[in-house]
Amino acid sequence: MNNKTVLITGASSGIGLSFSHKFAQDGHDVVLVARSKDKLLSLAEELEGKYSVKAHVIDGDLAKTGASNSIYEQVTAKGIEVDTLINNAGFGLFGEFEQTEISKEVDMIQVNITALTELSKYFGKEMVKRKQGQILNVASTAAFQPGPLMAVYYATKAYVLSFSEALANEWESHGVEVMALCPGATSTGFKDAADLQQSKLFQSGVMTVEEVVDEAYKKMTQKKVVIIPGAKNRLLAGSIRFLPRRMVTKFVRKVQERI
Length: 259
Ligand SMILES: NC(=O)c1ccc[n+]([C@@H]2O[C@H](COP(=O)([O-])OP(=O)(O)OC[C@H]3O[C@@H](n4cnc5c(N)ncnc54)[C@H](OP(=O)(O)O)[C@@H]3O)[C@@H](O)[C@H]2O)c1
Fold this sequence. Notes:
Blueprint: E1 5-9, H1 14-25, E2 29-34, H2 37-51, E3 55-59, H3 67-77, E4 84-87, H4 102-130, E5 133-138, H5 151-172, E6 176-181, H6 190-193, H7 209-219, E7 226-227, H8 231-240, H9 245-256
Bound molecules: NADP nicotinamide-adenine-dinucleotide phosphate.
NADP nicotinamide-adenine-dinucleotide phosphate binds at residues 10-16, 34-36, 61-63, 88-92, 111, 138, 140, 183, 185-186, 188-190, 193.
């Protein structure tokens, strides 16, 4: 990749933080987006000091209506052209649907689906005009099947996968690459944010954030539309489609249940 400007949502921790280091290390300017302004400011200082790149900070809550538009306007006002968009911000919620808080689920749909779609539209349209650009949408292996006890989260990620594959097809002829990154369980702040501490899902086979981002970063140059880091995750995602969906759903519930 030549020197580019990369906008990363959810840059304050986990996968987004690791992507921010990776791109900056390779000499790319970054636009860091999340709610935690202090974390972003110290990250920007670290990246600029270590890698001699420009790191811009935009704090915003993507659960709020209009946040994506405000981010787009701030980027435009600074005269920044975004070459690569990493739609990474997102979160999950564990629990039986009648017991979880609907306000959290509505916020999740807003962050995982609505903001991702809006940012793809605003920045993607400009990429189409310029006939070049890359969008990486962070989905999950959750995208490949329903997820009892995290029903809304799995459904949001199914949207991200479907949306990204369709957009990849539409924009291929316009020179814009769209990809869906589908990590399996990864050791980040996600588990605590989703209240998953007791779930079996995170008890074994968890990948490190560096493993996930290293593999994703490499595959971004290989014109892959769906990127699934880890051989085990690829095998699971690939084999699930040959099994009866009801059986797979029961299996996912077992894996997700509290120990
Ligand atoms: N970890 C896993 O096992 C796993 C597996 C598959 C997919 N994923 C996906 O990977 C992505 C990154 O998650 P992670 O694992 O890196 O978790 P994480 O460490 O909790 O990071 C989540 C990031 O999203 C940001 N974010 C959350 N809500 C936001 C909001 N309302 N507005 C703006 N930014 C917001 C957070 O920043 P602030 O709190 O500062 O706003 C943070 O930077 C998510 O889309 C997640 O669904 C994770």
